[in-house]
Amino acid sequence: MNIVVCVKYVPDAQSDRTFNESDNTTDRVGVDGLLSELDEYAVEEALKLVEAGEGEVTVVTVGPDQAADALKKALQMGADKAVHVKDDAIHGSDAVATSLVLAEAIKKIGSPDLVITGMASTDGTMSVVPAMLAERLGLPQVTFASELSIDGSTVTIRRDGDAASETIVATLPALVSVTDQINEPRFPSFKGIMAAKKKPVEEWALADLGVDASQVGLEAAWSKVESFTKRPPREQGQIVTDDGDGGTKLAEFLYAQKFV
């Protein structure tokens, strides 16, 4: 089974994340970044499926030079090869353009039996790219999987909701997005880290995919950030002395803040 996993390089949540002052886009170069945590579950699930049978796992990402670190992590976990789509014209792309670039990259990779993504990216948390990607590829989408199994030419997932769990079946090839409940991603071993250095990583530009630069980037985005303001520093809390009326003061504070 040949599986393609879409991964994303995102700013580290522990770093001082910000926007570029020049165009109000997310700063992905001047901050520390890493493989999106939710994508680790997608990589792990692909590896488990291949290890249970045969095939290979290809990881693909779209992003600047630093996005190679996301591919590196996936290869260290055990993926077989990687594709990095990078082009200056992609900067500022929205979900619509990102799904276009990913779809064309997957078509160029070949005809995978399965495309796996995370349920969302930890920076955007929109959860819309998997559906858009499935539409562009003409594949059935089975999303938000907390359990996944393959039986011959069908894929079955369990989707857990607030009130019930659903079982969804689709024929292969298909696209599946997975949640953080589906598995426990492995840590790269020393052997995996060393092996990753020899695994192939291809770099493609928009021209290699036949994508016109006018279809992507900030100018083609359906929405833009008009302005941003840095969060003000945290203020010192107010200390209230309880002189017998502490409960009343607490209730008044909660009422003033519209908590009650």
Description:
It is a single chain. The chain has 260 residues and is of the alpha/beta class. It has one domain (2-220): 3-Layer(aba) Sandwich (Rossmann fold). Helices cover 28% and strands 23% of the residues. It contains seven helices and twelve strands. The strands form three sheets. A seven-stranded parallel beta sheet has the order 7-11-6-1-4-5-12, sandwiched between helices. Helix 2 crosses helix 5 and helix 3 crosses helix 4 (129-137). The radius of gyration is 22 Å and the shape is globular. The protein starts with a strand and ends with a helix.
Strand-helix topology:
Elements: E1 2-6, E2 9-11, E3 33-35, H1 37-52, E4 56-62, H2 68-77, E5 81-85, H3 95-109, E6 114-118, H4 129-137, E7 141-145, E8 147-151, E9 154-160, E10 165-171, E11 174-178, H5 190-196, E12 201-204, H6 206-209, H7 246-256
